[in-house]
Amino acid sequence: MTAWQVIRAAAFQAMPWRNGGGTTWEIARGTFPEAPNGSKGADWHWRFSLAEIASDGPFSVFPGIDRLLTVISGEGIDLKIDDAAPRRLHAGEDIAFRGEAAISCDLLDGPTRDLNLMVDRRLARILPGRDGSRLQAEAGLILLYAVEEVGLAIETHELRLAPGEAVIGNAGATADIIAGRAVWARIERLSV
């Protein structure tokens, strides 16, 4: 069971958005120790966070970063990426976009909470968890957020997560979601 790390909601680190337009609670971040020279010394190569969007406005810019945003609560948002038509997202829906894109967000009816997974695109890619309840980290990472109470079957153990808790599965980790609703994704390392 050591391949899985539970992160309790009380351990999330609150911080302002880069552009000052909201609050983020960082769940976890990491670097890849064997990353090429151009990316060494970075604060992070991947970051998993929870954000509250309390008002309409722009998102922060993250050049070189790929992002996956999933709405987890609230009525939803209209997200405009560069010059494309707005995309409406409700709870449980996600969207991937480049961190350097010009993003503007309009709330549908009040604040939302959203999960954000970001990776340095030179080193990794994000694979949204749409392929059922089997979690397999292979050579990357699994990042899971419990929207409600979640049960994970890990080998001969069962791990229970309270709503708002997270878990990270390291390389080689496997589990099955046996109860509850969760949002999860896999970070897959790229050959560099």
Tell me about this structure:
With about 190 residues, this protein is mainly β. It has two domains: about 110 residues, Sandwich (Jelly Rolls), CATH 2.60.120; about 70 residues, Jelly Rolls. The protein contains no helices and 19 strands. The strands form four sheets. It has a six-stranded antiparallel beta sheet with strand order 2-3-4-11-6-9, with no helix packed on it. A five-stranded antiparallel beta sheet has the order 1-17-14-19-12, with no helix packed on it. A four-stranded antiparallel beta sheet has the order 5-10-7-8, with no helix packed on it. This is HutD family protein. It holds the Pfam family HutD. InterPro entries: RmlC-like_jellyroll, RmlC_Cupin_sf, Uncharacterised_HutD/Ves.
Task: State the gist of this model.
InterPro entries: RmlC-like_jellyroll, RmlC_Cupin_sf, Uncharacterised_HutD/Ves. With 192 residues, the chain is mainly β. 0% of the residues lie in helices and 54% in strands.
Structural class: mainly beta
Can you tell me the CATH architecture of the largest domain?
A: Sandwich
- Total strands: the figure is 19
Strand arrangement, largest sheet? 2-3-4-11-6-9
Strand and helix order = EEEEEEEEEEEEEEEEEEE
Q: Supply the number of structural domains.
A: 2
What do we call the CATH homologous superfamily of the largest domain? Jelly Rolls
Strand fraction equals over 45%
Average pLDDT score: 89
CATH class of the largest domain: Mainly Beta
Distance between the termini: 30 Å
Uncertain stretches: none
Largest sheet: 6 strands, antiparallel
Silhouette:
globular
